[in-house]
Amino acid sequence: MSTQHAFTLEEGGTAPEAPANGFHSIRQALELAGVSFASPRQMAASLPFTAGDTTAGSETELQAVVMGAKEAVDLPQIIERSNYFANIMKRAAAGEAPRRLVSDLERFLNDNPSRVWENSWVRFPRRLLSPFAAHLFAADLRADKGNPAAGLRSDAERFSITVAEGEEHLRLPISYLIKLSLADHIGTQGILPPVIRRTGIRLLGHYLNDNTSPETFSFNVVPLSPQTGMGRGIARETAVRFLLTQLLVSYANGQFGLERSGQQAMIYFAPHPPVRQKELNDLVPDAFYRELFMSPCLSGWDRGEEKYRYMQLCHQVLSRSQLNAVAKLREAGIICNNLVVLPNVSSVSLANNGTHVSLGSRLLTGALGNPASGFTPRHEKYLGDLATKVIEHFLPLFVGTYSAAPYRLAYTDFHPERALGFLPHELDYTHLRMLWRRWRKKARLSFFGTPITPFGPQWLDRMASGIFGLKGDCVPDYRLVDYLVCILSTVRSPALDGTPGNADRLRKDLADMGVFDEQMSVYLLYKQREFAKMGFSGFEGRYYSQFESIAEDMGRGVDIQTLVTALAFKYMATGMVSHADIPDDPSVESERRQIFFGAAVGIPTFYVHRTSGNAFLRRLLERTRGIRASRRYPGYLRVTLHEYRRALLRVLAEDGADLVEMMGLGETLRDLSARLDDPDRYSAAGRLTRGILAEVNASSPLAVNAREFNEGAERYYRETLRRRHLAEALRFLEEDFAQIDREPSGEDEAFRKALRFVLQGEQATAYLSRIREELLRGEAPLPELRRLINLVLLTVHRDGGDANS
């Protein structure tokens, strides 16, 4: 025990470690995987997820919009011509429904000065498709892409309309438009070099038409090593993928005549469901919302309609879970009377956007692919669940530090059944009550010490806000509250106890409780990616929201993600942690996750029971300064988030010193220290908030009302930050082009031939410099877009090496 703290931690009642499912120790499992225990140095060098062993890939969710007049854009036209709108008009005229339902919907359609329609589809003449793109579209309309005899999807007619002139126009979501744009780019160039054509065709499968937002996943698996810049390597791949996506959307605007018909498609990083989409969700039934915004899954699955029905199921289940949360809040004592504002029966949570970063271990993947190794899926599961539990203690380092989603809540939003989002399904009642009390204190929901929470009716809440000067709050990352990022285990079905099938048992338990569905995947902050299902063994980090800088925020964040993952395996290899140290109990699970969610809300303190059964957390707290006994909660210790994060940084620097040296992450730790000590200046949350405040011309988030701040954030993401991310991607591309110009002989003949075809004697860097400003302004003509798309495809081919040739 450390003697520098003015508190004592009592030993919790931990059970002995459970049997290891067919092997005698964690060490034996690691030896079977290929870890050497000949010396401490050899052990560290041979651990999974160390330098040279780790690969990375990312999946990004993007915000799509169509800009244009109401008469030219698909979304308002679909709403106006829908059966729902016609029926509600008739019911209102007959006095069977409030006239307000019609007037509010008409106001949504007619009062849109920005002319931005989030997640709208686009329309264009089918004749504009090249033969190759038309063939691809026809194939994607099949009910089963693996069986042409199965015929078309039953909803195939929804993707086309006949306009007044009798011509067929396609109706497509932007997520699918991107893929079709790439196919058209390939199909309109008859003499395209084979290396470019093959790469373009391969990338078609990386654009997913899933959920609400467009999704893309890495074009190439990226090795993480000091030579490749560690996390900067996957940041570069993500940025170049974002650049190609931008180019393809611009190509579609011109080639498919979108701009000529008054539509401008746009795509960018943005973490929250748009304000207007949330408002529309309050005006329409959940079935109609799904019809408008759930993507049809044309791309990415052989049986797209099945996937579409699955996404509808997810929406229904999450919507139902919001209602179920009200009962939990009542049971927790947070709702003390019958005066509540029921959540909408339609959830917009699936419109939240983030980035998932997956790390793979060559060591574990190789051992699992080799039956002679003796390393089995049981070993993988046992080690992976324990690693996940260890890593969850470090996740507060990431929230607001490397990514964020600043959001303003007005005083009227502070009904617990609204503000707490999905937290009732993610924390136990004790930690939920603690978090809610501290959040209300942070938001200053009181007048001369008397708590004043919203009463219920909007007009009364607005009056109280004005009279008492109650402004609400700004939180660093509301996406992590507004989206179900993890699910709390049950007493009988822990999610991370290391036993095969535990996720299936938990799903069944949660389905019986009415908060989940057995068909859905268990949501976790850090999710194991199992070899048998994914083809590699590793983990997926699902906690990244919005990056202010792809290079610095994502790159550094992945550095720390890799270091923490390697450190978890070092702890296991050295016997410093076992499953018994982190018991599989919902209260213990909630205890460590409350720190993460408190960081997302921006709460400066948290509480840990003095006799916590989590021995690993107790060891971390022994290295945390400034802890004292809680005066409010007897038996609990009061811990400040800042000091806990500083302790985690010291743990990484001290316990992981050999790993830091091996991976070359000394500068990353210095950067993390600056982000923690001066968050307003260096953290992602601080920089994003500054950008939003500049957009709305305000000195602080509370100096403007919630709607103005949140709409300003959307403009900032759509314009300023989109151009900044585009400029970052061009800088990465410029580095590639400079190397190609310096060492053209280092490339194979097929690559050099394709390069000559595209550049026509011009140097790559000179070409990029010449068109850079046009690209950033969004004014590059179609011929230049084609050339640059070809150049990007060449660099993607080059990154993939022979595997993609």
What do you see in this structure?
- The chain is α+β, with helices and mostly antiparallel strands.
- 50% of the residues lie in helices and 10% in strands.
- Strands 1, 7, 8, 9, 11, 16 and 17 form a 7-stranded antiparallel sheet that branches. A 3-stranded antiparallel sheet has the order 3-2-10. Strands 4-6-5 form a 3-stranded antiparallel sheet.
- Helix 9 packs across helix 21, helix 24 runs antiparallel to helix 26 and helix 28 packs across helix 29.
- It starts with 25 loop residues before the first helix and ends in a 5-residue tail after the last helix.
**What fraction of the residues are assigned to beta strands by DSSP?**
5-15%
Distance between the termini: 58 Å
The residue ranges in which pLDDT falls below 50 over 5 or more consecutive positions are 1-9, 11-23
Radius of gyration: 27 Å
Count of separate DSSP helical elements = 32
Structural class, from helix and strand content? Answer: alpha+beta
Number of strands: 20
Residue share in helix: 40-55%
Shape: globular
User: Mean of the pLDDT scores?
Assistant: 91
Main sheet characteristics: 7 strands, antiparallel
Chain-wise SSE layout:
Layout: H1 26-33, H2 40-46, E1 54-61, E2 63-67, H3 74-80, H4 83-93, H5 99-110, E3 116-118, E4 121-125, H6 131-140, E5 160-162, E6 168-173, H7 174-187, H8 194-203, E7 207-208, E8 215-217, E9 222-224, H9 231-255, E10 264-268, H10 275-281, H11 286-293, H12 304-331, E11 355-361, H13 362-368, H14 377-392, E12 407-409, H15 416-419, H16 429-442, E13 446-447, E14 450-451, H17 458-468, E15 473-475, H18 479-482, H19 502-513, E16 526-529, H20 531-534, E17 538-544, H21 550-573, H22 586-601, E18 605-609, H23 615-622, E19 628-629, E20 636-640, H24 641-655, H25 657-663, H26 666-677, H27 679-682, H28 684-696, H29 706-742, H30 749-759, H31 764-777, H32 782-800
Antiparallel strand pairs: 1-8, 1-9, 1-11, 2-3, 2-10, 4-6, 5-6, 7-8, 11-17, 12-15, 13-14, 16-17, 18-20, 19-20
Helix pairs in contact: 6-7, 7-9, 8-32, 9-21, 9-29, 9-32, 14-21, 16-22, 24-26, 28-29, 29-31, 30-32
